[in-house]
Specification:
0% strand; 124 residues; Four Helix Bundle (Hemerythrin (Met), subunit A)
Length: 124
């Protein structure tokens, strides 16, 4: 495994940790508090770095099944981050997230886990 792919693998595992911290706190607190905002933001940034490393380091096509799942999962998490930051800006930290936003966060996280597991099966 080349060093760029290895960097991507390590970075995506750090993103997994941050996404998990985000989803657990989002479920528990249901508000745009710092731990929710920052863990999601850091996870998205790490995920983008990991995706870039894997694209640079691979000799496979960018638009494979795993790539399509991964890009769509990253896009969903990015949309979730925008929605949660928008909630924070418009409504502050005191107003709870809507049920729809909570559900979207969970669906996006679940889809991201599908992409992660698909990537694990491609590496092994």
């Amino acid at each position: 495994m080349n060093s760029i792919i290895l960097t991507g693998v390590i970075t995506v595992q750090l993103a997994l940790i941050c996404y998990t911290i985000f989803i657990l706190n989002e479920h528990k607190k249901r508000r745009a508090v710092n731990i929710v905002l920052y863990s999601l933001t850091i996870a998205v940034v790490l995920d983008m770095i990991a995706t870039g490393c894997m694209m640079i380091g691979t000799d496979k096509a960018y638009f494979s099944l795993h790539g399509s799942i991964g890009y769509s999962a990253l896009l969903m998490m990015l949309i979730d981050a925008v929605l949660i930051w928008r909630h924070k800006i418009k409504k502050g930290t005191e107003e709870a997230f809507s049920k729809g936003l909570n559900i979207f966060s969970k669906v996006a996280y679940a889809w991201w886990l599908v992409a992660f597991m698909n990537g694990v099966s491609n590496v092994v």
